[in-house]
Design goal:
This protein is of the alpha+beta class. Helices cover 20% and strands 41% of the residues. Strands 1, 2, 3, 4, 5, 6, 7 and 8 form an eight-stranded antiparallel sheet that branches. A two-stranded antiparallel sheet has the order 9-10. The relative contact order is 0.23. Residues 159-188 are annotated as: Disordered.
Amino acid sequence: MSVAKVPDEELLVFDHEIAADPKRVFTAYLDPSQLHRWYGPAGWRAQTDDLVVESVVGGIQRVRMVNDFDPGATCVLQSRFLAIEPYHELEYAEQLPNHLGEPSDILVYSRFRFHPETVITPEGVGEGTRITVEIGPMPPNVHEEVRTSWRSTFARLDALLTEHDDPEQEDASPEQTDDGPGQASDPR
């Protein structure tokens, strides 16, 4: 299955604009050194100790988050990449966490499309990206809560990419290939 097969009433769709080009935004999704700094809604932080990003179709993304107010409360988000079109689209199937915060057998599909656009920036108007988010299936009564969680997550992404506007930070970008962002080479 994919997000394309989710019934309309169970599909949450919304856009978010960010003042960074699609390449930088897309890379932030797949680069572990960036992902842990922005991924997760307000009140939660992604951990680096067991973060996994296998950025190939069929690969796993596993993010363990810890609650800011109760460090004993954790949640593991585990996904499998269904589509990766560098700088344009990501789609994955995510195992929703159960009551213990571990991956369950309930799947939700997410697709993120990255569109180059003119957006409002801190300096006025400039180059940016419109991210179209599609998530489902999920009951309509939770759509607003999920949208709010993603808005707080995107606020962190906005801050991270604004911070990277500093030329000294650009050296920290991930290794790049013609196929898109990759992970650092194996030192063995």
